[in-house]
Amino acid sequence: MDPCPFVRLTVGNLALKIPVASKAARSVIHPSSSPCFCKIKLKNFPVYTAVVPFLPPESQNVEVQTLAATFHMSKSDLDRLVAKSLFAGKLSLKISIFTGRRGSSCGLSSGKLLAKVTVPLNLAGTESKACVFHNGWVTVGKDANKSSSSAQFHLNVKAEPDPRFVFQFDGEPVCSPQVFQIQGNIRQPVFTCKFSFRSTTAGDRNQRSRSLPPDISGSRKWLSSFGSDRERPGKERKGWSVTVHDLSGSPVAAASMVTPFVASPGSDRVSRSNPGCWLILRPGDGTWKPWGRLEAWRERGAHDGLGYRFELIPDSAAAGIVLAESTLSLNKGGRFMIDLGAGAGNGGSGRKSNMASPVCSPRGSGDFGYGLWPYCAYKGFVMAATVEGEGKRGKAMMVEVSVQHVNCTEDAAAFVALSAAIDLSIDACRLFSQKLRKELCQPQEL
Fold this sequence. Notes:
The protein is mainly beta. About 10% of the residues lie in helices and about 40% in strands. It contains 4 helices and 25 strands. A hairpin with a 5-residue loop joins strand 20 (about 285-300) and strand 21 (about 305-310). It is globular and about 75 Å long. The chain starts with 5 loop residues before the first strand and ends in an 18-residue tail after the last helix.
């Protein structure tokens, strides 16, 4: 499998030093009482907002090793940005630094603009070679020409090659589609998916789809350990499964709904307090082993969202490791993403999305917080999948997986199964007052 070129542009190691001012100077910022944040902008990409920590004026070294923003760019994104920089002036990253607390009132920002920083970018060739555009201090503010009384802002801006395997579902997971690998204009089939119902009652067990290996039903201990397939009163959706096969027909990954999606008492929605759950399985030692666990629910708000939480299940760990927890729009869809240390904003290939900031992502050591994290095998960008909203079903789903996290066919298949589970969760979290498509209903429900 040949990967597609991608570039990861990161902004991090932010810090601000402001000279100590006398109490009489009311117009001067006092770091001890004034919070600070910044907005990071790149043309045609969503805006990031990040906290900027203060450092003592005498400090020389920056010990804050955090990632504030990440921009993911495909080859087409790079070509477009490079072309625009040729005709519309030099491409640059723009950072606006504010004092005061984040937020807005009556549509106006509550922060006070302190300074603006512009970092020129030349992205040509960055898909094959890393480039550091800035690393160090820059003088900012109205007194930028007076080094003794000016503020200083520290940042690191760099671009690195981040090749990825790109997969495309040839239809929705419920339609048991083929999965193609995309490389430029080439589409090559690599997997097939089979959607089916995993029966949960003893009388129906013989009606399981032949696409599901016997081991998946035989591994009852895994299902009971990580979820519940017991009968529940009231409204529920249960028993959905997707098995991923390689081209030889061998099963290489599966997603199984182990906890039904149940309407909360007195409502017609799946709540955060009682989410549905999928188990992502991989073959090993002649049976199926759990690789990850995905919980999903319907968030309340002005626009309902799909809340989700994904955790890795390491063989040697007593508890799962949360890699992603966020929300995406149920109406418009978005990008389900696992990006460890991605920052607090929205990213993606020019599309607005809700990115997860991992609960246990590394902080405080190494470059941008990587270093000695116990599970550093998963770091940086891991995967992303486009998800269509409730009213826009039918479009082929795209999945990107970092090359560094794929060592075999089963690795890629596990991410494909996870993508199918998050896509089906859109339907599983549909209001129970609305009917599901017939493909998603058990035969006895038709």
